[in-house]
Amino acid sequence: MQNIKDHSPGVYRIARPQEPLPLIYDSPHSGRVYPADFDYACDEGLLRRGEDNYVDELIAHAPAHGIHLLCADFPRTYIDVNRADNDIEPDILATAWPAPLNPTERALSGIGLIRREIKPGIPVYNRKLSVSEITQRLENYYIPYHSAIRDLLDQSYDLFGQVWHINWHSMPSLGAVGPLPHSGRRPGSGQPDFVLGDRNGTSCWPDFTNDIKDLLKNLGYSVAINTPYKGVELVRRYSNPNAGRASLQIEINKGLYWNERRLEKNSNFNALKDDLEKFTCSLCRYISAQSPRLAAD
Question: What separation in angstroms does the CA of 137 have from each of 38, 114, 133, 148, 220?
């Protein structure tokens, strides 16, 4: 897997294991390098709330356990690699897009490929964006990230005949899910500790999703499946369970590790990081047992 650049400054970073498993982690929304041409008009603190804050650090242990780790450097509010490249809201454009668009409900509500609102009623920009502005973001950020994740997955699949992909995110501590049993870390938050998204069983095998749920529950966490986050473009585009390609989105409750008012790590950050490494160790044993070529070694 040496034909993919390990680092494209400001775009992405790849950390490689010495002895790889057919398992890829990626964190597409934890980027903190703001491009010089972003030219946003809203408060930067609000933009920071749109990041998956320090998820890349929470899973930085991955290469030590045989996992390739891909992380975006740029923020999702600049361009969102977890959206289709035509998921553009026409109203954000200064002139007509030169090809057909397919805006989803997310884009029409301001959170498509190019984010229009950072919060309801609070726009990111005080202007409309040009076609060339968005095109260069696609060419310089979106396409390179997708090329990197696709190549990592394809090369792992070619080597092992199977590949598992975990797409890591974080979610606000208050959300649309009703209360679930908790371990007491965040009483009354109303949001589960983790949400697993497999696009209603289409991006990976339901048994795999349930096994991941059990691994997390065994560590004392509450887990929901596909509610309210089912997984978006990065698990949709690169999954094909029938061909041995499994992709699962994992959302981490920010309340477990992040002070959402002060925008800083909370006192539980290192404990969660340790638990996620325990989860990774268990997952690696699981993958090794599931992979025929590994089991035969």
Answer: 10, 9, 7, 16, 41
Task: Work out whether strand 23-27 and strand 68-72 pair parallel, antiparallel, or are unpaired.
Answer: parallel
The model's pTM:
0.93
The full set of domains in the chain, from first to last, is: 7-83+131-296 (3.40.630.40)
Are 93 and 128 in contact by the 8 Å Cβ rule? The answer is: yes
Q: What is the pLDDT of residues 86-133, one digit of tens each?
A: 999 999 999 999 999 999 999 999 999 999 999 889 999 999 999 999
Helix, strand or coil, per DSSP, at residue 69: strand
Whether the Cβ atoms of residue 59 and residue 25 lie closer than 8 Å to each other = yes
- The alpha helices in 70-180, defined as continuous H runs, are 105-108, 131-137, 143-160
Token output for 103: 């805006």
Can you tell me which residue has the tokens 């795999």? 208
Q: Is the dihedral of CA 150, 154, 156, 160 positive or negative?
A: positive
Maximum alpha-carbon separation in the chain: 59
Amino acid at position 189, single letter: S
Output phi, psi for 124, to 5 deg.
-75, -40
